[in-house]
Amino acid sequence: MHLTIPESYDPKLSIIDTQKAIRYIRETFQDEFGKELNLSRLSAPMFVEKSTGLNDNLNGVEKPVSFDMKDMPDQTIEIVHSLAKWKRVALKRYGFGMHEGLYTNMNAIRKDEDLDNIHSIYVDQWDWEKIISKDERNIDTLKSTVRDIFKVIKHMEHEVWYKFPEAVYHLPDEIHFVTTQELEDRFPDMTPKERENAITKELGCVFLMQIGGKMKSGKRHDGRAPDYDDWKLNGDILFWYEPLQMALEISSMGIRVSEESMKAQLKDANAEDRLKLPYHQMLEKGELPYTIGGGIGQSRLCMLLLGKAHVGEVQASVWPQDMIDKCYENHIQIL
Hints:
Protein name: Aspartate--ammonia ligase
Number of domains: 1
Helix content: 25-40%
CATH architecture: 2-Layer Sandwich
Strand order of the largest sheet: 1-5-6-11-10-9-8-7
Catalytic activity: L-aspartate + NH4(+) + ATP = L-asparagine + AMP + diphosphate + H(+)
Number of helices: 9
Distance between the termini: 18 Å
GO molecular function: aspartate-ammonia ligase activity; ATP binding; catalytic activity, acting on a protein; transferase activity
Largest sheet: 8 strands, mixed
Low-confidence stretches: none
Mean pLDDT: 91
CATH class: Alpha Beta
Order of helices and strands: HEEEEHEEHEHHEEEHHEHH
Radius of gyration: 20 Å
Family: Belongs to the class-II aminoacyl-tRNA synthetase family. AsnA subfamily.
EC number: 6.3.1.1
Number of strands: 11
Strand content: 15-25%
CATH topology: BirA Bifunctional Protein, domain 2
C-alpha cells in the first residue's frame, strides 16, 4: 500500500455535491463519447467461462476472482478483468457494420492490484470497440481516434466548469504522441514509470505508444496481454496530474491484433497454448472483424476533472483501515 498526501488538500466539494458531480460526468461523458465515435451502448457480462479464453489476462500474473455455479459444475466462472476480447466477438454476433461500434459499462474486480491513490481492486470503465478495415490498421487511424477521445475529455472539462466551477481541474489544450522507445532513448537511466512522469510533466498530456513489446534494451516498458492489442499500434492516454505530482492514466487502447500479429505476440510471450481456445481459433480463421478499442476509466476521469486526491473519493470500494484513517486526517473524503 502506498499513499500520497497532497499539501494543504482541499476537496472543494462536499460528499453529496461530489456524488452529484460524479453522476453528471458519467452520464454526460458516455453520451458525448458515443456520438463522437459512433458507438452504441450494450449490456455486457460481469463474468465469463474460463474455457472460452475471453477474459483479459492483463500482465499474465494477476489471478481473476473465480467461482463455480450449481447448474454448470464442470465450468470455472471468472469475473472479468476487462472486456477486451468479448467486445470483438460481440461486434460480430450483433451484426455491427464498418465504422460502427459499441461501448459498455464494465465493472471488474482485480484482487491483486497494489492499492494507492489511483488504484483500487474495483475497476469501473467504459469499455469500447469499433470496426475498422484491415487497411486502417495503421498509426494514422490510432492517432485520429486518440484525438477524438481527447476532444471529448476537453469538452467535459468545460461542461464540469459550468456546473461545478469551484471544483474543476483544468486540462492542457493538446495531446502529444510519444513512443516507449523514444522515452527509453531520451531517459535511459529512468524506470518506465519515471519516464512517463517526466514526459507528461513536460508536455501536459501524452499518448504513449507501442507498449508490450521489447525495446532496444531488451526490456519491455510495461506488460500487455499478447492476444488483444497490437503492441505496435496501442498506447495509454496520460495526463500530468498536479495534485499528486504524477502521470495519471485515463485510457489504455489500441488497434487489435490481426491473425499475424496475434501469433507473433503469443510466441513472444510464450503463450502459444492459447491458440487452442475458441476465441483465438475464431481470430486465426478470420472470423472476427478488425477493430480498434480500449477502456476509459470512469472513476479516473471523475478524479481528474474534479481534482481529487484519491480514487476512493469518487468510487465506493474496500481500503485498509490505516489508509482510510490517514485520508480522513488530511481531508480526503473516502466514500
